[in-house]
Write a structure and sequence with these properties.
By secondary structure, this protein is α/β, with parallel strands linked by helices. The chain has a single domain, classed as Alpha/Beta hydrolase fold, catalytic domain (Rossmann fold), CATH 3.40.50. Strands 1-3-2-4-5-6-7 form a seven-stranded mixed β-sheet, with helices on both faces. Helix 1 links the parallel strand 2 and strand 3. The relative contact order is 0.16. It holds the Pfam family Thioesterase. This is Surfactin synthase thioesterase subunit.
Length: about 240
């Protein structure tokens, strides 16, 4: 099954914005964004295996296998692309961008949201011994997923996915290598205790084209709190002629 979900097809768009979800997240996290973006930008959301309409696909616990899968499909896209990754998704997007950039088919810009630069956080590892510890961590981040996980039946469905994603993150080992040829926009929520503007500058070592840092109101999941501000920022980043940064 395809890794991509296009909620609002725009075949004449100048740019395709490929969005990578956070740990425990799914493509639908970006459904609302599709209509908020201008006509010149088509949104493609990545659907990781084992969730929503890929529920019957095996959950991945190896980070390299995840990047292998999504990078192979990214290579088939035609025209200009940009990548947006939130939290764990920022690291997935970065590693996929490195793969495609090395082939001369990388994104025109990477948006890295709420995630420490890979060269600093060389491991993403998060491990928990009990369900209560998982829930305490999720509650500390906030976001729409917290309310869903308070329901015992939904929690039973969601916890295996979260635990698989945590193992996937533990399997990540940053390997120094070539820097991206595209610029990076680094985004943070003003109230996010896991990542702030002071951490954003470290992403500069991952590109030869410079970085821009942006802070938006909200916590770790500011992307859910102020989606219109995020899509406006993305739209302003590009011109309508050729989707160049």
């Amino acid at each position: 099954m395809s890794w991509f979900r296009t909620y609002l097809p725009r075949p004449r768009a100048n740019l395709r914005l490929v969005c990578f979800p956070h740990a425990g997240g799914a493509a639908s996290a970006y459904r609302e964004w599709a209509a908020l973006l201008p006509e010149e930008i088509e949104l493609i959301a990545v659907q990781y295996p084992g969730r929503q309409d890929r529920f019957h696909d095996s959950l991945l616990t190896d980070f390299t296998a995840l990047v292998d899968g999504v990078a192979a499909e990214l290579a088939t896209l035609q025209g200009a692309t940009a990548y947006f990754g939130h939290s764990m998704g920022a690291t997935v997007a970065f590693e996929a961008a490195r793969r495609l950039d090395a082939l001369g088919n990388g994104p025109v810009r990477l948006f890295a949201s709420a995630r420490t630069a890979p060269a600093v956080a060389t491991r993403l590892g998060i491990s928990f011994d009990t369900e209560d510890q998982v829930m305490a961590y999720i509650r500390s981040l906030g976001g729409a997923g917290v309310e869903l996980l308070e329901d015992p039946d939904l929690r039973e469905l969601a916890l295996p996915m979260l635990q698989a994603d945590f193992r996937l993150m533990e399997s990540y080992h940053y390997q120094p290598g070539g820097r991206l040829s595209c610029p990076i926009t680094v985004l943070a929520g003003s109230g996010d205790h896991t990542f702030g503007a002071a951490d954003a500058g470290h992403w500069a070592q991952h590109t030869t084209a410079g970085i821009v840092t942006e802070t938006l109101p909200g916590g770790h999941f500011y992307t859910e709190e102020v989606p219109g501000l995020v899509t406006d920022l993305i739209a302003r980043t590009f011109t309508t002629e050729g989707a160049h940064p």
